[in-house]
Amino acid sequence: MTLQEFYEAYIDCLNRQDWDELGRYVAEDVKHNGRPIRLSGYRLMLIKDFEDIPDLYFVIDRLACDPPLIAARLMFDCSPKGDFLGLPINGRRISFAENVFYEVTGDRIVDVFSAIDKAAIENQIA
Amino acid sequence: MTLQEFYEAYIDCLNRQDWDELGRYVAEDVKHNGRPIRLSGYRLMLIKDFEDIPDLYFVIDRLACDPPLIAARLMFDCSPKGDFLGLPINGRRISFAENVFYEVTGDRIVDVFSAIDKAAIENQIA
Known about the structure:
Chain A is of the alpha+beta class. Chain A has one domain: Nuclear Transport Factor 2, Chain: A (Roll). The first copy, chain A, has helices at 3-15, 38-52, 118-125; strands spanning 26-32, 59-66, 69-78, 83-84, 87-88, 94-105, 108-116. In chain A, the strands form two sheets. In chain A, strands 1-7-6-3-2 form a five-stranded mixed β-sheet, with helices on both faces. Chain A has a two-stranded antiparallel sheet with strand order 4-5. Chain A starts with a helix and ends with a helix.
């Protein structure tokens, strides 16, 4: 399995909300933006994302694989129920990008470095 | 020259503020986050960044090269003079990441997709 196939399978797992399978892709001691949240915390973060954004769906716009790194530009077109990143969205439809790096060791994601284009969301609700 | 060497030379050009040399790395018809700003607009954007942030310095934290894409996680540790991304920084020192994708065609950057981790800055000034 190439790094690209691995990543596409991971994103498919998220979109199916198949939390029992998440550990196939994410290491037990995963870190997210420097915080050691572990697999259990990573799963809870994703479950809360889908609660807050019922129509959440991950689309890979760009993908750069350079072992052990994966870099993805993810595009979202969705309707957060209430606040999102501290912004009052309240069910409005917004589009935004997340540029995210993953470090993969031993066939699992061990480190995630994410940046969401919040300024683009602010422009849409201004 | 590898894509990594090309990118390191581009970042060095920015840090030297060598605007006469920018066209060696950036195409005349470059786009930034979907906007066709051209090389002249790209140069003006960077000159304004250095005016607003006198101690601006680009550090490559992570780099994934997968032709024709470059993905970089850039780290900044700097002191914007006034507002930055709409936040009142007023000379305080902040640290933040920019995750950015570049598409390279014909030895020049033709497309840039940037996302700055604004939430991290908000946490620092809260």
